[in-house]
Design brief:
This protein is an alpha+beta fold. The protein is built from 11 helices and 12 strands. The N and C termini lie far apart (about 50 Å).
């Protein structure tokens, strides 16, 4: 593939140097127009040139990401899809399987970026990836913070919330089997107190049961006091299910578990590869 040179004209250099000196990683069309003296025609021509040469990527309408000089002499194309997706909505966080992939909790290839936001938006594409918009209930929109992704600040759910979200909606993680794998990997570097507080804040006994059962399934190193806390959160209902919510039992389903009082409507084969994955010694975080 022929590389695209990143050499600059005088006007293009003016824009890139101004943004670099300000340590500004994004710019709007209006800001570039102002930098170039107010000429819309000149600014649009410069923007088109900078995009073609790989110095700018369009994040959303009228807003661009700077591809910094230190990232090399050639155009980088879709070098930072998460940063581009992050410009779609505010507030937001990158979550579910996308966050799990960022933390290295899954090896599944992802061509969908999950953006969690209370803003009602349609799905769209960023580069060759599809952006899926997830509108959470207000009591689940938390547990995220700023993360540096190739020099851009992106809001991503933390490790604990990522695992909980994937268990809550496995379809956005690649299925129940993949959610179990993500939980097993996450618990090796897990803040169990934080995870328990998140589950308590969400206030869903059914979600606590799914989390607890999967933690036992992967043989995660759950502290006894956290286990007791989760047991107190599950409530009295016996109707919780893991897997398809319809009442038809899948073939070779694992069935009812008395400890967590949950019906596991998942085939044994789907969870076979995640059995015991959390046995490896966990790395505990200092509080």
């Amino acid at each position: 593939m022929e590389s695209i040179t990143r050499s600059l004209s005088t006007q293009e250099s003016k824009v890139i140097l101004a943004l670099t000196e300000k340590r500004q990683r994004t710019a709007t069309r209006s800001e570039i127009i102002a930098l170039l003296g107010g000429s819309v025609k000149v600014a649009d021509h410069v923007i088109e040139g900078l995009r073609h040469k790989g110095w700018l990527e369009r994040a959303t309408w009228g807003e661009y990401l700077l591809i910094p000089p230190e990232q090399g002499p050639d155009a980088l194309g879709d070098s930072n899809l998460l940063a581009r997706a992050s410009r779609i909505a505010d507030p937001y966080y990158i979550g579910f399987g996308t966050a799990a992939a960022h933390y290295g909790l899954t090896t599944q290839h992802r061509n969908v970026i999950v953006v969690v936001t209370p803003v009602r938006l349609r799905a769209r594409e960023v580069g060759e990836s599809r952006v899926r918009i997830v509108n959470p209930s207000p009591d689940k929109f938390f547990g995220f913070g700023p993360v540096d992704v190739l020099g851009y600040t992106v809001m991503i759910s933390d490790r604990e919330k990522t695992a909980i979200d994937c268990i809550d909606r496995p379809a956005l993680a690649g299925g129940v089997g993949e959610a179990a794998t993500i939980l097993a990997a996450a618990t090796r570097r897990f803040d169990w107190t934080k995870a328990a507080s998140y589950l308590e804040r969400i206030g869903s006994g059914a979600l606590v049961r799914r989390f607890g059962w999967l933690a036992d399934h992967v043989q995660a190193d759950m502290p006894p006091d956290i286990r007791q806390q989760l047991m107190c959160l599950i409530g009295q209902s016996t109707r919780a299910r893991l897997g398809p919510t319809h009442f038809q039992t899948v073939r070779n389903a694992i069935g009812y578990d008395k400890t967590w009082r949950i019906f596991v409507n998942v085939a044994r084969e789907e969870l076979h590869d995640s059995t015991g994955l959390g046995r490896r010694k966990s790395v505990r975080k200092d509080s």
